């Protein structure tokens, strides 16, 4: 039996992140620690703008690129006037020079008025990543997000209607979480057919209101095991709908690592989840095979995740009848499963 991995092809253009911690945010959300997540505290937009211009010029002079410019860490569409326009005109200048090929930003689903989106699109914005976090009214309310599940869906629709590509960010394990909620959020997100998704299981970070709730025993985060299992399931759903999952779990960052008090923060979270998702796919194929498997050929690009983190999935493959001696890695895009 021959089959390919269901994950859509990754983008070949490198992302150039520009962090604008909390810029434009109407308030600080219960769980948010953008400053620690990004390791940046500067919110002087002029300083960020000038540093970006100089870095882009250096990159152009050195013949680097092309890049997708990504404005992250705040609420880009609600930046004070004229910063959204100024950042986008800067990006447009470097797009003309061939250094920048695409521009994306992150924002909240309640900050995407149609006229704002069409204005920013005309200035060169291509993709909007919405920090949806959840479509569930209860979780949104308990997390103090300030909008409803309906408003979250509406925000996604407005982005698509404005002719922009959509990215969805979900934050499973928020206050108000309950069994099955993340599965439902993933189903709703997949139905909205975003180009990309980011899945960041909720962490308790020092200095946030959520940390105080956790200290009082009012909030219990997900375990790493639960996060890996739920993320793996989510990956299968999103891959089946051709959604690129571009990040799971926050990137390791010194300031974040030392500030996480509780929750599923593990550097190999994504690798474990991807490995588990792949295992569930192989299991399915073994069932379809209708006989005892004798060998599995795996495209070499999946060699780092087939067995999850530190070989944790080797026993599961052994149980499937695929011990290490029956698995080989090869060039090419196909998985090949043979039976006796
Ligand atoms: S979660 Fe988003 S909207 Fe809330 S404070 Fe953080 S960056 Fe701002």
UniProtKB/TrEMBL annotation:
One of its GO terms (molecular function) is 4 iron, 4 sulfur cluster binding. This is Radical SAM family protein. InterPro entries: ELP3, Elp3/MiaA/NifB-like_rSAM, Radical_SAM_C, rSAM, rSAM_horseshoe, rSAM_sf. Its cofactor is [4Fe-4S] cluster. The keyword Iron applies. GO terms for cellular component: cytoplasm. PANTHER family: ELONGATOR COMPLEX PROTEIN 3, HISTONE ACETYLTRANSFERASE-RELATED. It comes from the Bacteria. Keywords: 4Fe-4S, Iron, Iron-sulfur, Metal-binding, S-adenosyl-L-methionine. GO terms for biological process: tRNA wobble base 5-methoxycarbonylmethyl-2-thiouridinylation. It holds the Pfam family Radical_SAM. Residues 8-241 form the Radical SAM core domain. The keyword S-adenosyl-L-methionine applies. SMART domains: Elp3 (SM00729).
């Amino acid at each position: 039996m021959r089959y390919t991995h269901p994950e859509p092809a990754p983008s070949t253009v490198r992302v150039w992140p520009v962090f604008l911690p909390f810029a434009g945010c109407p308030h600080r959300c219960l769980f948010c620690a953008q400053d620690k997540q990004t390791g940046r505290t500067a919110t002087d937009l002029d300083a960020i703008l000038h540093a970006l211009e100089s870095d882009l010029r250096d990159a152009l002079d050195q013949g680097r690129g092309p890049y997708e410019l990504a404005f992250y860490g705040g609420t880009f569409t609600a930046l004070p006037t004229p910063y959204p326009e100024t950042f986008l005109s800067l990006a447009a200048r470097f797009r003309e020079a061939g250094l920048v090929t695409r521009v994306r930003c992150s924002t909240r689903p309640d900050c995407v008025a149609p006229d704002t989106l069409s204005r920013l699109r005309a200035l060169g914005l291509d993709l909007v990543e919405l920090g949806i976090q959840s479509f569930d009214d209860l979780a949104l309310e308990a997390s103090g997000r300030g909008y409803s599940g309906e408003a979250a869906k509406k925000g996604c629709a407005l982005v698509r209607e404005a002719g922009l590509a959509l990215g969805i960010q979900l934050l499973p394990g928020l206050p108000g979480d309950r069994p099955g909620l993340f599965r439902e959020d993933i189903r709703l997100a997949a139905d909205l057919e975003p180009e990309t998704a980011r899945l960041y299981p909720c962490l308790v970070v020092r200095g946030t209101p959520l940390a105080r709730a956790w200290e009082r025993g009012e909030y219990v985060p997900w375990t790493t095991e639960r996060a890996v299992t739920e993320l793996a399931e989510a990956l299968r759903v999103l891959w089946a709908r051709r959604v690129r999952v571009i990040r799971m779990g926050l990137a390791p960052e010194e300031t974040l690592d030392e500030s996480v008090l509780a929750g599923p923060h593990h550097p190999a979270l994504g690798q474990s989840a991807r490995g588990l998702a792949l295992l569930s796919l192989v299991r399915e194929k073994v069932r379809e095979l209708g006989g005892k498997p004798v060998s599995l050929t795996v495209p070499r690009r999946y060699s780092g995740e087939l067995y999850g983190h530190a070989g944790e999935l080797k026993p599961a493959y052994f149980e499937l009848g695929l011990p290490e001696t029956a698995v080989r890695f090869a060039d090419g895009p196909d998985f090949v499963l043979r039976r006796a």
